[in-house]
Write a structure and sequence with these properties.
Elements lengths: L9 H27 L13 H33 L6 H23 L13 H23 L8 H21 L1 E5 L2 E4 L3 H19 L2 H15 L6 H15 L14 H13 L1 H14 L6 H4 L1 H24 L1 H7 L4 H29 L7 H34 L12 H5 L3 H30 L8
Antiparallel strand pairs: 1-2
Helix pairs in contact: 1-2, 1-3, 1-17, 2-3, 2-4, 2-7, 2-14, 3-4, 4-5, 5-6, 5-7, 5-8, 7-12, 7-14, 8-10, 9-12, 10-12, 12-14, 14-15, 14-17, 15-17
Amino acid sequence: MPQENTYDYRAVKGFAISSLFWGVVGLLIGILISLQLVYPQLNFTSWLTYGRLRPIHTNALIYGFTIPAAFSLFFYLVQRLGRAPLAFPGLAQVTLYVFNIAIVLAALSLFAGMNTSKEYSELEWPLDIGVVVLWVMFSINIIGTIMKRREEQMYVSLWFILATVVGVAIVYIGNNLGVPVSWFKSYSIYAGANDANVQWWFGHNAVAFVFTTLPLAVFYYILPKATGAPLYSHRLSIIGFWSLVFAYLWTGAHHLVYTPLPDWIQTVAIAFSLFLIAPSWASVINGYGTMNGQWEQMRSNYLVKFIVMGITFYGLQTLQGPSQAVRAFSALIHYTDWVPGHVHMGTMGWVTMTISAGFYYMLPRIYKTELYSVKLADLHFWLVLVGQLIYSVTMWITGIRQGAMWQAVNPDGSLAYPNFIQTLTPNYPFWNMRAAGGVIFFAGFLVFVYNIAQTIRQAPQRRPS
């Protein structure tokens, strides 16, 4: 087994700091656009309108916050679980610099209105090529380190890491194939319903391989470490992994229920969405089983609070998501605020809480220090929990109200609310509550960033050799 000082954590540290920085940027923009929906005067200039800022918000938090968190945590996990240093530490450093250059260019292009109009895939073709190059560099290091591992047994976290590496590459390249017509514009090689089908095959699998396999890799590593208890079932974790990866690839068309997409494709997506409950809850059950006899740690162990509440929100999301795929329920809530409520329960409750637990566990160890303040970590937990609940619950309420008002009819069969504005203005109180929940969540995130910054600051300084 290699000594601790043979592991290379330089890129781990750099990507963690990048992730926190872009997380702050993305959340700030999210608060602004939530207010712009109620207060149009906040659309200051064309560069700062909702239409420009919304894709920057989603890209900043998917590719600016979550992806570098994955790079950081994965570079740490493959070394620890494989008991081998990074295969190409110099390449990892180059990847860090290329990543931050790409993110800045991506933000500037979206500010300038360069946009493919494809959800979560708005970047134009030169930046798409840059993303692919970046992902290849990352993948070479991950796969190379796993191949040279000294630990023969591959723990389930490594399987989820590999799924992220392979899955993101397939769906990103598949959806972004296009024909360039200038340096700043391209058109998809797909058309019409086919384009929509491929787009949501990508969109939902971006959720699968960024917002699911990433936090699951972290969850399976951190929970046994934090509790000191063995994983409830390794067999269940592997069964859950393979069935999850298989099922997710077929579910994207549930975003296109009641569209021109062929009914059989919609039905296949609905069936696999319902099936997805089982492998998702395999991980939830594994988490709760691991906590058997350890539940008192929910009061005393801040890491356990984050990781257990994270997997709980994952479980709730993977009940809510499949239920939304069913045609009868989709008819009520599709295109309403219920959907962002569902998405943000996952991103704010599951993904961010799990990444937070990963950073809280990892960074003090690689900086060889203690966490600056457990009290601040507890404050962070309660602020993000309350903020996320306010956000999600208010969006579920207004979503159901919206859907009901859109479908309401008079005795003669005419629409009860024929003017769209009649169904829009009642949203304002809920949108204000959503913004308030976002502010509370953002306050918790700032506490998190401060706590990590102070932890790094108090780390012992290495003397030059």
